[in-house]
Amino acid sequence: MPTIDEDLAQLEKDIRQLKIDYEQYFGGGKVRPPTETEWRIDSMLKRYSDRGAGMSYTQRFHYSSLAQTHSKYKEMFRKRLKKKEEGTVERHFGAAAREIEKERSRKRGGEKQHSAVTEFPFAISCKDPDHEKKKVEQLFTAFRNAKELASESTERLTLEAFQSFVREKTDQLKKQKNAGEVEYIVALEGKHALLKARVKS
Average pLDDT of the chain? Predict the structure, then answer.
């Protein structure tokens, strides 16, 4: 039988996986929301809510932190599910942007539909990032998705900072290598998300 610490470690892992699964669902990568994982988390939270007296102070603190995180995610997912059911999407990058692109692909009719799920390695080429913002946004989304799949934090990853990085890196490589174009590649290697840049001949 698992110990309390082992159960809490599994609970933390399940909550992290739930966030990834919901992002994939909202992005079109999964047909149904991850209700089984959510049920498992709710059951575990209720079980330890009922037997909190048997936990140490450290374990209660860990449990409380996980419960708050899950509650925050649950509210966020509830709002996004409602928007999805109502057919409205927020105008920001990430899952909503992929939904918009998917809908545009459908409306093109004869044109080939693009998958809403990022496939790795993902690559784009830039000559002037300031005039190719859509490409940079796609690269940002792919990099963030890769980090989430690798269970890496995306808390400090912002589009503005990413655009500045790509602009500076492109200028730097073009000057160093006397090149006209820079290719950026997002890849998953092992358990790490990588962003590589190289000049194109």
Answer: 81
Give the phi and the psi of residue 82 in degrees, each rounded to 5. -60, -45
Q: Residues near 146 by Cβ (< 8 Å), separated by ≥ 6?
A: 118, 120, 122, 186, 187, 188, 193, 194
Based on the domain organization, do 53 and 128 belong to the same domain?
Answer: no
Residue 180: helix, strand or coil by DSSP? coil
Contact yes or no for 55/66 (Cβ under 8 A): no
Q: For tokens 């890496």, what's the residue?
A: 152
pTM of the model as a whole: 0.44
DSSP class of residue 190? T
Torsions phi, psi for 137 (to 5 deg): -65, -40
Which domain-ending residue is among 35, 66, 88?
A: 88
Residue 35's domain comprises: 4-88
Instruction: For residue 193, give the nearest of 154, 167, 135, 136 by alpha carbon.
Output: 154
Within 13 Å of residue 79, how many CA atoms lie on the same side as its CB?
Answer: 7
The CA-CA-CA angle for residues 42, 24, 186, to 5°, reads 130
For 68-88, what is the mean pLDDT?
84
